[in-house]
Amino acid sequence: TAPGQAGPGRTDVMANLFEWNWASVASECTDVLGPAGYAGVQVSQPADSLRRTELGNGSDTVLHPWWEIYQPVSYELTSRMGSEAQFRAMVKTCRKAGVKVYVDAVVNHMTGQGSVSYGGTKYSHFAYAGLYDASDFHQKGTDCPSSTGGIEDFNNLQQVRKCELVGLADLRTDKPKVRNELAAYLNRLIGYGVSGFRVDAAKHVGQDDLIALQKKLNRTLDGDKPYVALEVFGGGPGTLSPEAFTGAGAVLGLDADIQLKNAFKSYPADATGSLATLRDFGAGLPASGRTLTFVQNHDTERNGDSLNYKDGATNLLAQQFLLAYGYGTPQVYSSFAWEATDASPPSSADGIITDTDCASPAWVCVHAEKAVTGLVSFHNHVGRAPVTHWWDNGGNLIAFSRGKAGWVALNNDKVPHTETFGTGLAAGTYCDVTRGSVTQGRCSGPTVTVDARGQARVTVAAKGAVAFTKADRV
Ligand code: LM2
Ligand code: CA
């Protein structure tokens, strides 16, 4: 189920360019993602959505919060991120750059507020002209057993599936007509060259409806079944657990990002966990091949479950670990800077998202950092080689090999460490890909010398890493 080869030398690394507009995603595919070896890019929910026209009550000060896109009103592709033509051009450009496109698909619900949208669709809570009427939504009393019509108990199977998630009109995904509309939408995207989906609120759709929907989907332009990553957060019992959804697709690594946070940064603030625990990263979680892993996504960066860009060097180090270790299909998240949790992405006054500028502090381009692209290259070169030569100091200095293909050390301490490590690699001089790369046999950054016994004496900077593969020999 992993996305798989998308271009020369690529494996499965995905970037998640949350709320980047289509024009900016397209140029990033050509200029950065393709050349750096990313195999895929996840883009934001592309269907027409709520466009707020007035502020809500009390503390509400943001007219166009990032979450407007999670209230779709039709399957027309006019959105905050651009027009349908721009979306199609973006998919084409990315594919040409060797980068497959994965779409965030909202199939559980429509809106919970408003009557105006980005594409001009007129709607109300249970009525979407030419698409859905009240008979297409679960109703309080008949379908949903909670008194308010909302999900009150997230461990109650019927409520989770048939009540409203934060007041969002809940689609009857068990109804043939609804399934057909959803499949027509997703198949249109597949026809445009899309390779798969991040399925929003998949836990609230349920396994049976997700499987039935996928049976209606066409093959991608590459002839594959679309890759599907289901949003199912942990903590629910049995049927509601991420593990119970792995028969319906891959799942998002929403417990894995908690493990990463706890290893890299514990609380009280400024205390650190132990990288040494990551020897068993992913233990107790769904299988590697069924998990889309990340250090954070748009929800967890705000809700405290994960590290976020404000963690600076610690965040970059965690991204490096994720790319180096090999649990899950790794995804690197890049979006906009924020203070309030409901902030808008950089936009015009009417909510149209402006072009991404990675040089501006308004945007955070984690995927383009040398520390990260170096490890994307590392990840692609080591492939599926197993983790070997694990070494740790019991605390925050770790090192390991990926078979005989590559070696990495990571230091989450505030002081540098110098050690002699067994690397498992052949004797030679290697280019540290966290800071340099090899062009015409020369390394643009520091090198590491491995002796005849495979050992190397290496200084790992504070909050730094050293990594190289057998392809990085100079
Ligand atoms: C998701 N996964 O299952 C998304 O990852 C998450 O970001 C979405 O919530 C959620 N499911 C629905 O797609 C976000 C945001 C919510 C926001 C919703 C809908 O976290 O705060 O809810 O999108 O836009 C907002 C208001 C909420 C209100 C709701 C409906 O914050 O107070 O509920 O709209 O009007 C009364
Ligand atoms: Ca539902």
UniProtKB/TrEMBL annotation:
Domain annotation Glycosyl hydrolase family 13 catalytic: ranges: 12-379
Reactions catalysed: Endohydrolysis of (1->4)-alpha-D-glucosidic linkages in polysaccharides containing three or more (1->4)-alpha-linked D-glucose units
UniProt-listed SMART domains: Aamy, Aamy_C
Needed co-factor(s): Ca(2+)
Keyword Acetylation attributed: no
EC number: 3.2.1.1
Keywords, comma-separated and alphabetical: Calcium, Carbohydrate metabolism, Glycosidase, Hydrolase, Metal-binding
Annotated Pfam families: Alpha-amylase (PF00128), Alpha-amylase_C (PF02806)
Presence of keyword Disulfide bond: no
InterPro entries named in the record: A-amylase/branching_C, A-amylase_C, Alpha_amylase, GH, GH13_cat_dom, Glyco_hydro_b
The family this protein is said to belong to: Belongs to the glycosyl hydrolase 13 family.
Name this polypeptide is given: Alpha-amylase
